[in-house]
Design a protein that fits this description.
Pfam families: NAD_binding_8
Organism: Actinomycetospora corticicola
CATH topology of the largest domain: Polyamine Oxidase, Chain A, domain 2
CATH architecture of the largest domain: Alpha-Beta Complex
Structural class: alpha/beta
Protein name: Phytoene dehydrogenase-like protein
């Protein structure tokens, strides 16, 4: 079907409802609409996008991403292919990621493996050995990485080469390096999994990010991450689909009559909606589904940018603040035990380095996440003090440059996105079982067990990110079950 054909679809076309308009929900909706389904997306909030929303809490002209800000796994995602036609543009920072240390130095992650390795001194060869091969072959590897972990790989030897080190705990894999700089760089990337670094498979998300990033970089979407949602929505509209905002689905009765229902929701939300309609085994699995740790966030307006001690850090899109590898591991372990780290791991986003349109003159928007226990009840003042102190540690004088800030607590995340309950921005713990198998072990991770209903959120493989692939896979499964397109 070509764009525009949706308006001519048959009145007997299968009807599909998509609950939630994050990138997974919108990607699923586009797949269904392209297969001649009559598609409606229902979004509880006033605006679409989920984790890819962008807003201006610091004043007009200062664009701040709500959650997802950098997209190494989105550029080559099949779910987002062709969105340039609908206005999506990518922009890359000069340096993808920086990891400053207390001695004033910083480890720098570049798109180039060779350039990154050259900055790691004695660990250059070890770094190349770990990531060069898979990164070079990422276009061939991507179809296997962006789907269920348990599957028959298209390129089994390549997938095995990538997968072998991912089973290791991040702390164990980090021992391949000899320098504090290389170990810290690795620990910061591994911290994206928000799991204890002593846990098996805690290397998987970090290695996936490095592999994709060395192939595609760590770009931002020009104009804010909302550009991803806007482009997907424009594609859906071209295919005849529609979106209704401000519609909160609380009952299965609201879904009656649809042939296909795709849920861009966490398992707990699906359980609340469908209840006893779900098979008992699914109900038990969804009740057992484990949440991850929480996040809190401060968005800053910074006059002149952040005054990092290591000047190169100012050229990086992403900055990891956590000190040494043992310090990061200790902070992540504490948060997972329910204890607030004195110095939590903080991820800083300097999106305007790549996309100057987000700044207002010399005032730059900077966002900063801290990893905290799930549901940590810290007040806005406590959150601001916690996060600002960690930035000030590596950028003395930062406070004096802040002209305004906006805080999101753990409850604040949940207030505008139920999937992020307790500040769990990854839609569930990415522990070994849930990372590999999703919420229903040994079953299709996208199937709910109720015919016609499919899970399409970051709770399902391949997990978090603005790549839309959980939705893409769920929609393909739904079409196959419905016999559409055969």
């Amino acid at each position: 079907m070509s764009p525009g054909d949706g308006a001519q679809r048959s009145s007997t076309a299968p009807t599909a409802l998509v609950v939630g308009s994050g990138p997974n929900g919108l990607a699923a909706a586009a797949v269904l609409a392209a297969a001649a389904c009559s598609v409606t997306v229902l979004e509880a909030e006033p605006e679409i996008g989920g984790g890819t929303r962008t807003h201006e809490p610091l004043g007009p002209g200062l664009l701040v991403d709500h959650c997802s800000g950098f997209h190494p796994m989105a550029v080559d995602s099949p779910a987002l292919a062709g969105l340039e036609t609908y206005g999506l543009r990518w922009a890359w920072p000069e340096i993808d990621c920086a990891h400053p240390l207390d001695d004033g130095s910083a480890a720098l992650l570049h798109r180039s493996v060779a350039t990154t390795a050259a900055g790691l001194g004695p660990d250059a060869g070890r770094y190349r050995a770990l990531v060069a091969g898979p990164s070079r072959r990422y276009p061939d590897l991507a179809p296997d990485l962006l789907g269920p972990v348990v599957h028959v790989p298209r390129r089994p030897f390549l997938f095995a080469r990538f997968g072998a080190p991912t089973v290791l705990p991040a702390a164990v894999l980090g021992r391949v390096f000899r320098t504090e700089r290389a170990r810290a760089l690795w620990a910061g990337v591994a911290a994206h999994a928000m799991r204890p670094h002593t846990e098996p498979l805690s290397s998987a998300i970090g290695l996936g990010i490095l592999t994709a990033g060395h192939s595609a970089g760590w770009p931002v979407a020009v104009g804010g991450s909302r550009a991803i949602a806007d482009a997907l929505a424009a594609r859906l509209a071209d295919l005849g689909g529609k979106i209704e905002t401000g519609v909160r689905v609380t009952s299965a009765d609201q879904l009656a009559g649809a042939d296909i229902v795709v849920h861009d929701l966490d398992p707990a939300s699906i359980l609340r909606i469908l209840g006893d309609r779900l098979p008992p085994a699914t109900q038990r699995a969804y009740r057992r589904f484990r949440r991850g740790i929480g996040s809190v966030k401060v968005d800053y307006a910074v006059d002149g940018g952040v005054p990092w001690t290591a000047p190169d850090v100012g050229r990086a899109g992403t900055v990891h603040l956590g000190g040494t590898a043992p310090e990061i591991a200790a902070a992540e372990a504490a948060a997972n035990r329910g204890h607030l780290p004195e110095r939590p791991f903080v991820l800083v986003g300097q999106q305007s380095v790549a996309d100057p349109s987000r700044a207002r003159g010399d005032v730059h928007p900077v966002y900063a996440y801290a990893h905290v226990p799930l549901g940590w009840p810290g007040t806005e003042a406590e959150v601001e003090a916690l996060v600002t102190a960690q930035i000030e540690r590596f950028a003395p004088g930062f406070r004096a440059r802040v002209t305004g800030f906006s805080v999101t607590t753990t409850s604040g995340f949940a207030a505008t996105n139920a999937t992020m309950a307790g500040g769990d921005i990854l839609a569930g713990a990415k522990d070994p079982v849930q990372l590999a198998l999703g919420p229903r072990p040994l079953r299709d991770p996208y199937a709910t067990g109720l015919p016609g209903h499919w899970l399409a959120s970051a709770a399902a493989p391949p997990g978090p990110g603005a790549h839309g692939m959980a939705g893409w896979h769920a929609a393909q499964r739904a079409l196959a079950e419905a016999g559409v397109g055969r």
